[in-house]
Amino acid sequence: MDKIKKKKIIVIIASIALIAWAIFLFSVDIQVLVESMGIKNMYLILFIVSALSSTSFLTSASFYATFLAYINAGFDPLTVSIVAGTGGAIGDSIFFFVSRSAGDVMSNNKLYNKMLNFVSKLPKWGVYLFTYLYASFAPIPNDILVVTLGVLKFKYIKVIPFLWIGNITLLFLIASGFHYAF
User: Fold this and answer.
1) How far apart are CA 5 and CA 11, in angstroms?
2) Fewest Cβ atoms closer than 10 Å to its Cβ: which of 42, 67, 112, 148?
């Protein structure tokens, strides 16, 4: 089996796993899950849901619904944002490492190609600033950006802090707005 086929298989398996997770999240009532697991495990549940849900367009709606349900239940917006943002950074890490070996599978994606062209023209400090700003103010999954950074072989240890803090910033802004609006 050639290299391209192996990479496509990796992407297909990852896609199937994300679709299965989306089906699970749409079929299980999160409130019932929290009640059965107990309040003490709420942060663990949120972390897991965040790590597995915030990484894809397919599951991001269920993630935001879950996230806001916890804010609505009266949990501290900053703490919930830190837990969920950390989980989101773990999810972003999955895409980052998969893209290192399977990034050329995305070569036909127009959005990916635009992001690749844009990011590759930035100076390194500009890439890190853009990563933070994108993760902080774009309420969409970081998939395309993270895949681009992985393909361009940016060092994980240098990229992840900007994604992590960006995720926390975005979630705190959403949580604060929701918390104080209602």
Assistant:
1) 10
2) 42
Distance CA 129, CA 149 (A): 13
Phi-psi region of 133 (alpha: psi -120 to 50; beta: other; left: phi over 0): alpha
- The pTM of the full predicted model, rounded to 2 decimals, is 0.77
Q: Which helix or strand (DSSP H or E) is residue 147 part of?
A: helix 143-151
What is the number of other CB atoms lying within 10 angstroms of the CB of residue 167? 27
Residue with tokens 């599978």: 105
pLDDT in tens, 102-134: 666 666 778 778 888 898 899 999 999 999 999
Instruction: For tokens 């980052």, name the residue.
Output: 96
Residue-range definition of the domain harbouring residue 58: 3-181
User: For the residues of 35-74, what is the DSSP string, one character each?
Assistant: HHH-GGGHHHHHHHHHHHHTT-TTTHHHHHHHHHHHHHTT
